[in-house]
UniProtKB/TrEMBL annotation:
GO cellular component, one term: cytosol
Entry keywords, A to Z: Cytoplasm, Lipid biosynthesis, Lipid metabolism, NAD, NADP, Nucleotide-binding, Oxidoreductase, Phospholipid biosynthesis, Phospholipid metabolism
PANTHER family: GLYCEROL-3-PHOSPHATE DEHYDROGENASE, GLYCEROL-3-PHOSPHATE DEHYDROGENASE [NAD(+)] 2, CHLOROPLASTIC
Gene Ontology molecular-function annotations: glycerol-3-phosphate dehydrogenase (NAD+) activity; glycerol-3-phosphate dehydrogenase (NADP+) activity; NAD binding
Designated name of the protein: Glycerol-3-phosphate dehydrogenase [NAD(P)+]
Main localization (coarse): cytoplasm
Length: 318
C-alpha cells in the first residue's frame, strides 16, 4: 500500500509520520524543493514538527508524480488553497482523493468534498475530527471520521488510513463531516475571544453550546445528518478546539479578546469560513448570531460592544 500526501505543513506531516510508522510507503509532497530536500536530509520537518523523526518509509518529495503514483491521495493544504492545488493536478481517474482540510471556500461557499467533486471525477472523501498534528506526530491516541458517499471506497479508506494511533470511523455523510470540521473553527475563535477578554469559563461554555446549536441549524438546513454533527467531526472537534491553546483558531480568538495582533502567516481556517458561512446564512435565512459576532470581531468591532449586542438580542426558547 502507498499513500501520497499533498501539503507538508503540520497536518500533512503528522499524518505522514503516523501512516508511515506502520511501514506503509508515504510520499509527502511539498511545493518547495529546498524545504523537501532539507526534510529528506534531516529526516524530520524542521519548520512544523521539529521533534518528530521520520520513519524509513516516509519519503519527502517535491516531485508531484511520486505522490500521484500512490494508491490514495490525501490533500492536506489550507481550504482556501485547495482549488488552486486541484486545478494543477492531472490525476489517474480512479485515484481516491481524501480532503484533510477544514473550511468553507470563501468565493463559492463549498466545503472540501463538494469542491473536489465539482472539479474532478475521482472518488472524494474527507478525513476529519479532533486531532492536533502535534499529538498525532507524538503517537498519542486519536479518533477520526472518514466520510465518503461510496461505502465500498469509504470502508477501504477507513482500513487503509487507520494506524496504531489513529482509529478511523466510517460514515457516508460527507456534507455533515465537512460542515462540522469547518464551523467548529468559527466557534473556537468566539470561545478564544471570550477567554482572552476575561469573560470566564461560563461564557465559553455558553458560546460552545449555542455555537453547536448554530452548527446544527446550518447542517440541518443543508441536508446533513444530525448524528454526524454530534460525532467526532462535529461535537468532538468543537470540544477540542474550543478548549485548547494548541488550536490556532482559539489562539486567534484569544488575541482578539486581548486586543493584540495575530501572525498573518499562521493557518487559521475559521476566519474565511466565518465570512463564507455568514454569507450562506444570510442567503438561506439561517440565524447564526455567534458566527456574525466572529465576523464583526474580525472586522474590528470592540469585543464588549459585540458581546453586549449578542446578549441583548430578544429572549427565545432554547
Ligand atoms: N494542524 C493541525 O493540527 C490540523 C490541521 N488540520 C487541517 O489541515 C489543513 C492544513 O493545515 P496545517 O497543515 O495545519 O497548516 P500549515 O500551515 O501547517 O501547513 C499548510 C501547508 O500547505 C502548504 N500550501 C499552502 N498553499 C499551498 C499551495 N497553493 N500549494 C501547495 N501547498 C500549499 C504550505 O506550504 C504548508 O506546507 C487545514 O485545513 C487544517 O484545518 C486538520 C486537523 C489538525
Ligand atoms: O482542527 C484542529 C484540531 O482538530 C486544529 O485546530 P486549529 O486549526 O485551530 O489549530
Amino acid at each position: 500500500m502507498s499513500v501520497g500526501i499533498l501539503g507538508a505543513g503540520a497536518f500533512g506531516t503528522a499524518l505522514a509520520i503516523s501512516i508511515a510508522s506502520g511501514r506503509t510507503t508515504v510520499q509527502l509532497w511539498g511545493r518547495s524543493a529546498d524545504d523537501m530536500a532539507e526534510q529528506a536530509r534531516q529526516r524530520r520537518n524542521p519548520r512544523y514538527l521539529p521533534d518528530a523523526a521520520y520513519p524509513d518509509t516516509l519519503h519527502p518529495t517535491a516531485d508531484l508524480a511520486e505522490a500521484l503514483g500512490c494508491e490514495v491521495l490525501l490533500l492536506a493544504v489550507p481550504m482556501q488553497r485547495l482549488r488552486d492545488v486541484l486545478r494543477g493536478l492531472d490525476l489517474p481517474p480512479h485515484l481516491p482523493l481524501v480532503a484533510c482540510c477544514k473550511g468553507i471556500e470563501l468565493a463559492t461557499g463549498l466545503g472540501p468534498v463538494r469542491l473536489i467533486s465539482s472539479l474532478k471525477p475521482n472518488p472524494a472523501a474527507i478525513l476529519t475530527g479532533p486531532s492536533f498534528a502535534q499529538d498525532i506526530a507524538k503517537g498519542l491516541p486519536t479518533a477520526l471520521t472518514l466520510a465518503c458517499a461510496d461505502p465500498l471506497v469509504g470502508t477501504a479508506l477507513q482500513h487503509k488510513l487507520s494506524t496504531a494511533n489513529i482509529r478511523v470511523y466510517y460514515i457516508s455523510d460527507t456534507l455533515g463531516a465537512e460542515l462540522g470540521g469547518a464551523l467548529k473553527n468559527v466557534m473556537a475563535i468566539a470561545c478564544g475571544a471570550a477567554i482572552g477578554a476575561g469573560l470566564g469559563d461560563s461564557a465559553r461554555a455558553a458560546l460552545l453550546t449555542r455555537g453547536f446549536a448554530e452548527m446544527q441549524r446550518m447542517a440541518h438546513h443543508m441536508g446533513a445528518r444530525a448524528e454526524t454533527l454530534a460525532g467526532l467531526s462535529g461535537l468532538g472537534d468543537l470540544a477540542l478546539t474550543c478548549t485548547s491553546e494548541l488550536s490556532r483558531n482559539f489562539r486567534l480568538g484569544l488575541t482578539l479578546g486581548r486586543g493584540e495582533s495575530f501572525d498573518k502567516g499562521v493557518t487559521v481556517e475559521g476566519a474565511a469560513t466565518a465570512r463564507a458561512t455568514l454569507d450562506q446564512a444570510k442567503t438561506h435565512g439561517i440565524d447564526m448570531p455567534i458566527t456574525q459576532t466572529v465576523v464583526r470581531l474580525l472586522d474590528g468591532t470592540d469585543l464588549h460592544k459585540a458581546m453586549d449586542d449578542l446578549l441583548s438580542r430578544p429572549l427565545k426558547e432554547e
